[in-house]
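Protocol step 4 of 6.
Sequence for Exocyst complex component sec3A isoform 2 (Theobroma cacao) entered exactly as in the expression construct, tag removed. Do not edit the line below.
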Amino acid sequence: MAKSSADDEELRRACEAAIEGTKQKIVMSIRVAKSRGIWGKSGKLGRHMAKPRVLALSMKSKGQRTKAFLRVMKYSTGGVLEPAKLYKLKHLSKVEVITNDPSGCTFTLGFDNLRSQSVAPPQWTMRNIDDRNRLLLCILNICKDVLGRLPKVVGIDVVEMALWAKENTSSVTTQSNQQDGPVATTVTESDLKVTVEKELVSQAEEEDMEALLGTYVMGIGEAEAFSERLKRELLALEAANVHAILESEPLVEEVLQGLEAASNCVDDMDEWLGIFNVKLRHMREDIESIETRNNKLEMQSVNNKALIEELDKLLERLRVPSEYAACLTGGPFDEARMLQNVEACEWLTGALRGLEVPNLDSTYANMRAVKEKRAELEKLKATFVRRASEFLRNYFASLVDFMISDKSYFSQRGQLKRPDHADLRYKCRTYARLLQHLKSLDKSCLGPLRKAYCSSLNLLLRREAREFANELRASTKASRNPTVWLEASTGGSQSGNSADTSAVSDAYAKMLTIFIPLLVDESSFFAHFMCFEVPALVPPGGVANGNKSGSYDDTNDDDLGIMDIDDNDSKAGKTSADLQSLNESLQDLLDGIQGRLLCCSGLGIQD
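Step 5 output, structure tokens:
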């Protein structure tokens, strides 16, 4: 048989050199093959890159304490052993021989302190069974002697190990490095083995059993002698039994009394069990009733939970945000706060539409809370519309009063000034979006607002026409004789009057050229600003104002920079009622302007 690597002194010295400086002593070193293979059904091991390794058992003494280690050595590129892994034998919990290996030379070592227990431990394969038994017995001996316990052993026949330990009693030479140098010591193989037979039967017990089996002679050699022997033993046993029965009569009576007492106890127990059975039946019925009620309660709980969720959603729809309520009931209408007011109007419009039947389930529409919330929103709407209408009426009047009181807006002596309403329209555009929302909330509130706007703007237009005409009359120095214009109109040939007639005609044409486009633009702006659903008063690209651009100002005053709240309503068609209302409002807007233009056109009539 080939020499085992456990007896290789050169390998031991290489291992000691690899762990030099650790103060550990090599007990055994042996070559193995490391793999993580899987045994297939064919019985052959499919190793994946089996790697040569050396397993070395080392010990370290510190006072009275001794520590044992299992070191894994690997070969470097130069063929020199170097430490790869270190395991403490105190954490060794399992030694398992792979049963699928037909040779029995493959085993695994399980440690309880590994970080990842889900990863399979490596498999170690020996050259033969002797090397496997030698290494495992050495490990088990160290665990028993040093640690005082044995790990769990799986897949190893204990009897086979014991027989192998008895047969292999050859000595193994080990070395220990002392300070004075290496000293060779002889250790028998029995010192390195676990005496497995001690775990089953001790040596003294085994000898006693052999002596007992040796002294007992059954005498089966002669059948008749054996039969006679059995008869005598049977008679002796029967006699002994009869004598024992006669001697045990008091005991029998005592046993009978005990049986009677036990029978009474059994009867009582049967009665108790009957009572308990009745009680358990009643309890079962109660439990069934409780389960039925519990199921109903669970169903009711689920329904209540769903109802609460629906009610929470409904309450969220009915809730009025505090910031919107403050804006709708008492917030200011200055330019800085218009964004908040518009957002509040949008929310109020959406909330009112959300409480209508198409947008709200009909089952919710008849609820008292929904009706009360709808009434509350209607009050908010009425309050806001009233406050906004009052503010806009006062705002239009104050804006026009300010322009009338400022003479810089009108023509002055020696300075003929074209009327400019750009600032007026810019300030009105600030509240255009508010008017759109007022129309969607309460269309009836637009009538008083339109009248207030028309009356205020009419005063401004009449004042501008008067001031412009006065300054134009003063600059042209036309004759105050009313017949001059009449004679000129009939085609008179007087040369003196022709010059005056021409000057008056030019002044009148100039005034019409300025004021007619202004009035048309103001009418168009009014129609869009006051949310009339009518077509544009001046077609795009038209020249009603007398210039090529088709607009009085450089910018299009009709574009308010807003979008209709309901595009479908604006595209549905313009009704005759809106046209009639617009015509009435334009009459209020332009009331008296025609007379101003005629009286100031050069007829010499003072207004």
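Step 6, annotate. The chain has 19 helices and twelve strands.
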